[in-house]
Amino acid sequence: MEYSKEFKAALSAFSGPEKDKLIFRLLRKDKLLSKKLYFELIDPETTDDKRDAMEDHVETQTLLATKYVGNAKYFLSTVRKISAEITEHVKITTDKFGEISLNLLLVNKILENNSDFSRQRFDNVYKLYIYIINKIFKSLILVKKLDEDYWMEIDEYFRNTQKKISENHYLQKLCINNGLDINWLECDRIPENIDQIVKDIKSQGFLR
Hints:
Layout: H1 5-12, H2 16-29, H3 31-41, H4 47-65, H5 72-93, H6 96-110, H7 114-118, H8 122-143, H9 151-166, H10 169-177, H11 194-203
Helix pairs in contact: 3-5, 4-5, 4-6, 5-6, 6-8, 6-9, 8-10
């Protein structure tokens, strides 16, 4: 929504107490905005502090979720909740590096259970694998927008991801079928037009 000059002028005309009431009313309705303002204005923790805490959280919650690996549908719903918490962290802190590193950490922690997945029917883990492939593609796109100073750290996550995919026959095959070349899991090797590549793959009905 765009705000006209008249609307902005009317808001500016509010008295101090009126503005305070309006701000607090809006914040009560928008918890994410409230957390973002708190972080930007008075939170003693930095973005790095928040990311470190989120890394611990992702590792802990993914470990707890492994109890339900046998129930692929429930496991995926739990993973989605962890992913939503990462998204909230990014929206609050605008942590561009963390958006990639935390999601790759989540992927790598999920794939630590490769042996458990291999004992299940492929149909049961298909949606989880497609979810993982989509996350990897999103990370590849985001890396191209990230300062190259961070690439060395991201490559560590990518190497871990590549290793775990190579240990999972069905996931590796699904990557090939959905256009994901695991050789791209190195910042220097990501195609310049990776965003267009993903659009083309989705337009052909893949990654679903």
